[in-house]
Structure formats: C-alpha cells, structure tokens
C-alpha cells in the first residue's frame, strides 16, 4: 500500500529572483566604435562631402572644407573605397550630375509692361482616373510645401502631386545643384501640367555657374541681373503644351540676411511673371504676414486664434501657417480647371499681378 508523501515544509524566506545582468561596454570601447564608424562613413561618402562643401557660401570656411574633403575623396578614389556608396547614391538619385546648362541673360523687366492679350489652351479638366499632373520643385521650403500639399489633396483624386523639393538648393549655386538643368529634365520626363516652384531662402550668396565660375558677387547690380535670368529661365522652361507655372513666393523670414535675398527674389519673380501669361505668382508672404505686413513669429488667423507661424529657424513655416497656405493654394489649383469650362483662358499682362496673386481669406 502506497504511503502518501509528506508535504515539504514551506520556507518562510521569499524566493530569490534571478537578476538579469545587463552587459555594458566600456567607455573606451564605445568611443572607439564611434570613431571607426565616422571614419567608415567619411571614406564611403567622400564624394557627398565634397558636394556639401562646395555648396557652402564663398569664404575661407568653404575653402578649407573643399580642400579637406577633396583630399579625402582623392585618397578614397585611389583605392576605390567609395565605389559602393557612389553606386547606391546614383541608383537612388541622391547624387545628380549637373548638366551642361546655362541660363540665358534677359533684359531688365519693364516696370510698366505693355498690355498684351494672349490666348492659352484651357487647362485640362482632370478626372480621378486621369488626374492633373502637378509637380512641386525648389528648396527645402518647396519640399515642405509639397509634402503638405500631398496631405491636403488626399480627398481630391483629380490632383496628382509629385514633390521634387531638395534641401539646401537654390538658383544661385549651379555648381552645387543646377535647377535649370533639373527643371529641363523634369519637363521632358514628367511632362507636368502645372509646376509649383519655390526658392530663395538659400540664395543670399554669390552666383556661380555649373563649372564653379563666379559670375556675380552677392549685393552687386550684376547679381540681380544674373538672378533675374535664372528666374526667367525657370519660367520659360515651363512654357508650351498648355503648361502652367505657379511661382510660390517665399514668406518673410526672421533672419535679416536671408530676408534681403527673399524680398529681392520675390520682387523679381513678380516682375517676370507679369510678361508671361502661363506664369502666376502665389503670394505666401502676404498670407502669413504680421500686423505691419512683415515678418512676425506669431500671427492672428482668420478665425481669431493666434498661431506661431515659424519653426525655430525663423524660415520654415509651422504646420498651422502651412495649413493657412493650403487653404488658399488648393483652391488656386482646383480653380485652374474648374474655371476653364472647356474654353480658352484669355488674360492680359497688365492684370495678371492682381488676378493671379493669392489674397488672404477674410
């Protein structure tokens, strides 16, 4: 007969929980790993470092950066250590070769252009199955604009938005990024029906050609002439086949040095748009202006609420003020085909400044 096993007395002491020991690395190992990682990155991306250095404003800092990165790039090219990064960058479109492109020089704009009547083909009335092909291009402000525009038109299937905004670019430095060559490529390959172009915040510096030749020092009369030819060149590349270009003006900014370039670029763009019926100017600065019409970190929205209008850099718009822009930009886009009605659109150069410039909603 089996006897029942006696119960073992329970210990009053709590069971000891197994402690997990977190394995850590010494500070010396960590910093050595960081140094090695940095060296590997510098070696692999030496070509990108050269491009970034060349994009800096002219001065001794740029000279030192170009010389230093150039030495590193030549050494890594010698032993082909940067080939994997260069191949990947080319496949992903991160690195773009500047085409042999030069903007033509244009005459100064007539402050009072003659009244002309031009008949344009109507904007195609899009459908959800065949949406209007809209391209956004320009600097980081354009990139932010394009991203927000994509979100704003999610319930408008008649609009298809492609965003080609690129950080740290502009029209002044064709040696760093040639927007003329890029726009020529976009028009040829994407065939945009409407293009939104926005630059200026990075253009307060000397103007260079694609080969690095300095053609005009910032602040000189030659600078404005050269910059005008580049604005006009972007506009003219979008002429024909019923295309429309909306030149999106930069908002006023909190940095005085950048503000001077922004105001000059906005003024020239408005002047050049007046003589080009396919171009309209969208006035962002007015939409987000302060009480005095200039820069203000905080503005009062149409509903009476107050909003901080800029990010910490005083250049890029906040989400609330970008929404303010979208409230006017989206109707501008949809109005282009809603008002077409299947008939030709006739406009005059004298009236385009008022009829095509966005006004704040009351």
TrEMBL record:
Q: One Pfam family of this protein, by short name?
A: DUF459
Compositionally biased tracts (Low complexity): 345-362
The name this protein goes by in its record: Unannotated protein
State where composition is biased (Polar residues).
Answer: 1-12
Question: Where along the chain is composition biased (Basic residues)?
Answer: 13-23
**Positions of the UniProt region annotated as Disordered:** 1-24, 340-362
Matching entries from InterPro entries are given as: DUF459, SGNH_hydro_sf
């Amino acid at each position: 007969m089996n006897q029942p096993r006696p119960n073992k007395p329970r210990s009053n002491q709590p069971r000891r929980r197994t402690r997990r020991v977190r394995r850590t690395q010494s500070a010396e190992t960590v910093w050595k790993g960081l140094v090695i990682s940095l060296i590997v990155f510098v070696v692999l991306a030496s070509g990108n470092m050269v491009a970034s250095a060349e994009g800096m404003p002219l001065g001794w800092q740029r000279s030192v950066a170009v010389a230093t990165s150039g030495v590193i790039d030549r050494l890594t090219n010698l032993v082909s250590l940067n080939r994997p990064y260069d191949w990947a960058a080319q496949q992903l479109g991160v690195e773009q070769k500047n085409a042999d492109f030069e903007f033509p020089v244009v005459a100064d704009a007539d402050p009072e252009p003659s009244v002309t009547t031009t008949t344009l083909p109507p904007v195609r009335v899009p459908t959800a199955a065949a949406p209007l092909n809209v391209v956004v291009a320009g600097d980081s402000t354009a990139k932010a604009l394009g991203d927000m525009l994509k979100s704003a038109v999610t319930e408008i299937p008649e609009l298809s938005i492609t965003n080609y905004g690129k950080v740290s670019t502009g029209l002044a430095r064709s040696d760093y990024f040639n927007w003329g060559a890029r726009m020529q490529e976009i028009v040829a390959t994407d065939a945009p029906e409407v293009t939104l172009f926005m630059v200026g915040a990075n253009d307060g510096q000397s103007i260079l050609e694609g080969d690095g030749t300095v053609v005009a020092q910032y602040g000189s009369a030659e600078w404005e002439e050269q910059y005008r030819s580049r604005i006009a060149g972007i506009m003219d590349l979008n002429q024909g086949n019923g295309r429309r270009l909306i030149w999106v003006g930069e908002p006023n900014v909190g940095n005085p040095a950048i503000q001077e370039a922004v105001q000059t670029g906005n003024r020239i763009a408005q002047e050049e748009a007046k003589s080009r019926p396919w171009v309209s100017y969208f006035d962002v600065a007015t939409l987000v202006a302060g009480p005095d019409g200039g820069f203000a970190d905080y503005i009062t929205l149409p509903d009476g609420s107050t909003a901080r209008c800029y990010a910490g850099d005083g250049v890029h718009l906040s989400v609330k003020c970008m929404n303010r822009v979208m409230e006017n930009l989206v109707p501008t886009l949809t109005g282009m085909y809603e008002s077409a009605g299947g008939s030709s659109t006739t406009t005059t150069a004298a009236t385009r400044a008022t009829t095509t410039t966005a006004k704040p909603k009351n």
